[in-house]
Amino acid sequence: MKGVGFFRSIQMKFVLTYVLLILFAMQVISVYFVNSLEEKFVTNFKTSLQERVNLLEYNLREEMLKERNDESNTLEQDIRGILEDFSARDITEVRIVDERSRIIGTSDANNQGVVGQRMTEIAIKRALSAGATENNMFIDDRTGQRVWVLTSPILSNSEVIGAVYLIGDIETVFSQLDDINEILFSAAILALAITAILGITLARTITRPITDMRRQAVALGKGNFSRKVKVYGQDEIGELAVTFNNLTKRLQESQATTEGERRKLSSVLSHMTDGVIATDRRGRVILINEPASKMLNVSRETIISQPIVSLLNLEEDYSFDELLNEQDSVILDYSTHDRPYILRANFSVIQKETGFVNGLITVLHDITEQEKIEIERREFVTNVSHELRTPLTTMRSYLEALADGAWQDPDIAPNFLDVAQTETERMIRLVNDLLQLSKFDSREYNLTKKDTDFIEFFNKIIDRFEMTKSQEVTFRRKLPRYPIYVTIDQDKLTQVIDNIISNALKYSPEGGLVSFKVEEHGDTIQISVSDQGMGIPKKSLERIFERFYRVDRARSRKMGGTGLGLAIAKELIGAHDGHIWAKSVEGKGTTIFFTLPADLSEEDDWV
Ligand code: ATP
Ligand code: MG
């Protein structure tokens, strides 16, 4: 904000008002004063001359009526003497005429020649004939100055015996008035100057606090709360300044609170795990927190003021107004064919008391894991019930047949009982497997690890299978001839290897080859079992380690499998800090690999 220029400031307005007021007052005063003064001066001038003329008349009358002889002075001489006494500064000339208009005396010493001439002025004639006194102001043609002419008759017993003709120098009065005017003018100028200076000082005392407050307000606008207005007095402006300071303090406090709240809110928003999106009342995004932008895989900058419906990809199912009325949470399924990704969105409307909608808050929650677990749980229950139902149904029908009288048939009864026993064993195995997995789920592995020469351990298991195998299958071993020591739970690992080998045998064709291999890789050993069976389709390769997963349900159940063997193997190998995986070419064969950590540096010491 620009400062206010001096000529537009309050101070200037003050001073100007002052000066104009004074000027006006002076004007009025001087007009009135000068007029009355002039009137007074002129009247004084006139009366003073009139009075002197009266006296002069009296003296002249005496002289003009006096008896004269030859020794005595002539009338003209006497009059001249009187006029000499009479002359004064404010009188230019006095002429005396007798009853026949003849000049009998003049006060002008340089103009005595006029004595004896006749005066032709009309005023003289009127004075002589009618005895009238006249006075008039004229401008003297020669000097251009004002003169005052008085004609007055000289009476003796109501008879006119002559007249006085007086030219008064009234200009002296006017020049005096001019002097006074001059004094008045300079006094006025002085007064104005003093007033102006006083005005500026006075105005400054009033405007300074206002200027201060103005500056403070500008600073406030820029967010600077540190300044304070100085309080100069207890008057209204002083009170205003105090109020202004209080206001500043309040503003600062509320600003600090708002800022604090804002910071709290933003840190809460960015540290929460849920995504939060806020929109304005038209559904355009005004705020999105970090988790939300990560969940939706968008950058915060580009998404601001985009419609939320398109951000959430809901255009087909919802309009913004429908979202405002959505009470339940909305499931957003962004899963791709290889990656499940499911979000749950809850909406709450920001509403004023009047019901006016201010915007919408959306909370996003990643429920992919939850959904996955839920699906797994459902599948698990289905699988378990399914697995148990089959043997139970079989057993029921056999037991019914036995109860119906088959128990008496010595040919059938043992056979039926045998089936019932097999199925029972199958169920016991299944329940045991499940129990074992449930223990793994609660991290109860109960491993009793021992240092073991893995080669010897592996060889023994293969030997056992070689002795008991019923098919025509060749075993080939590619194992090191020296011992490799690993720390393992022998029982658990036997279970794993048993399952892998029995799987290989299950799926091996008659006359097939099963190879066993142990290789050293850094500080781990890699064990593999390969067969020449039917193989596993590519899409199932990962899944064979899932619980109850079987590539071909019907066939593997026939082979007595429940699909838990590899799931247990995966848990146990994991508990030994190893990995397990499968490679397979359909129709050619399958290889199951697993690794175990081994202390291979010790080998040298033992050799
Ligand atoms: P269980 O081992 O519990 O008795 P199972 O052998 O069917 O039952 P897993 O050992 O977990 O279960 O194997 C899971 C599935 O993987 C099998 O049903 C089978 O479809 C497939 N599979 C495993 N090993 C092989 C293999 N060597 N050749 C072909 N398919 C295999
Ligand atoms: Mg198996």
From TrEMBL:
Domain (PAS) ranges: 261-326
Broadest EC class assigned to this enzyme: transferase
Annotated GO biological process: cellular response to phosphate starvation; regulation of DNA-templated transcription
Reaction catalysed by this enzyme: ATP + protein L-histidine = ADP + protein N-phospho-L-histidine
Histidine kinase domain location: 383-600
Subcellular location: Cell membrane
Family annotation (CDD domains): HAMP (cd06225), HATPase (cd00075), HisKA (cd00082), PAS (cd00130)
PANTHER family tied to this protein: PHOSPHATE REGULON SENSOR PROTEIN PHOR (PTHR45453:SF1)
Name this protein carries in UniProt: histidine kinase
The species this protein was found in: Domibacillus aminovorans
